[in-house]
Design goal:
Blueprint (H helix, E strand, L loop, with lengths): L25 H11 L25 H4 L10 E5 L3 H13 L3 E5 L2 H11 L3 E5 L7 H10 L7 E6 L4 H10 L3 E4 L4 H14 L8
Helix pairs in contact: 4-5
């Protein structure tokens, strides 16, 4: 792969379960950005961003500012993504909005966390190690829990066959990465509004 690794949409071999790690555009974009800046060996740059902390930030008002109804503080959301930074960032966003969150980073962790945490919503990546997201969804659907969690696929694959496969695996919604935070909050608000089959959503 070394001669092709910076080509657009270049990808290595698929994992044993057929999942791939991404769309194959990140390294191409990185190379083009470097070329546009005239950089090369020994000519790199360092960028530092400092974000001041504001103690007066209206954290609790975040959902209302975006036109989204505030969730109940006890609503539990399980975030499953093998990209630990992405999972942590999404968890922080949802916690700022008043949700209780838990994260997992592979399929087996997801099932163990779901059994312990009993989430009302599962935000579930498809391309996971050990067990892919569709298999995790099937097993969650087969679990004999008192209440049925809402399953939302978060994936880089958004074509019609991908959405159909998600639906057949038991997902209630399918969002394509990078997920728009406002769209996700709106989806959660819509689930809250219609109950989603769970007393905590009413």
């Amino acid at each position: 792969m070394l001669p092709r690794v910076f080509e657009m949409f270049a990808q290595g071999d698929a994992l044993p379960d057929g999942a791939r790690g991404g769309l194959g555009i990140g390294l191409t974009l990185a190379r083009r950005l470097v070329e546009l800046h005239g950089a090369g060996r020994g000519l790199g740059s360092e960028f530092v961003v400092r974000l001041p902390v504001s103690a007066a930030a209206p954290v609790a008002a975040l959902p209302q500012e975006r036109g989204v109804a505030a969730p109940p503080a006890t609503l539990r959301i399980l975030i499953v993504d093998d990209n630990q930074d992405a999972a942590a960032t999404l968890g922080l966003l949802l916690e700022l909005g008043g949700y209780a969150t838990c994260t997992a980073h592979d399929g087996e962790q997801a099932l163990a966390a779901a059994e312990r945490f009993r989430p009302e919503v599962v935000l579930l990546d498809i391309g996971l190690p050990l067990l892919d997201g569709r298999e995790v969804a099937r097993r969650l659907r087969a679990a004999r829990w008192e209440h049925r969690p809402v399953l939302v696929a978060l994936t880089g694959w958004g074509q019609a066959p991908d959405r159909l496969a998600s639906h057949e695996a038991g997902f209630d919604a399918h969002l394509v990465k990078p997920v728009d935070n406002e769209a996700l909050l709106q989806l959660l608000a819509e689930l809250l509004a219609r109950g989603a089959g769970h007393p905590a959503w009413r």
